[in-house]
Amino acid sequence: MNIISKIVGGVIVGLLFFTGVLGAQTVKVKAVISSCDQPIKLFEYNGFSFRESMEAKKMSGDIYEISLPKMEMPRVYFIGPGGRDVKPIILGNENMVTVMGKCGKMRVAQISNSSLNDEFDELKKEISTLRSNTIQL
Question: Where are the beta strands (DSSP E) in the chain?
Fold first, then answer.
């Protein structure tokens, strides 16, 4: 009877883990943002306006952290203090993404440890090159 209860218990824990109840994984965003006297936030854009998703936790000095559940399908967010001072960031199933920037200049902040954002930057460069070539025609 003891072996059967251990097997059943293991199956239940396994099911809970795979359905996300126990093994919910998170993607963390570590933001090193200098010269900021406002909270750093994560925003979503709904096509008309920005909506605050969550506020970053200030860890120390210029270091902030955001944790959210990993997603199968990547989503585009914006990080920064708000208004026009935000940087687009794609989050999905990566473990840790790092953003380094400065308030007032978030649009040029650097994102690292993220193949999704690296690929997005490459796509933007290709589009810029195509636009430039089209203008020359």
Answer: 26-34, 41-45, 50-55, 57-60, 63-69, 75-82, 85-91, 96-102, 110-112
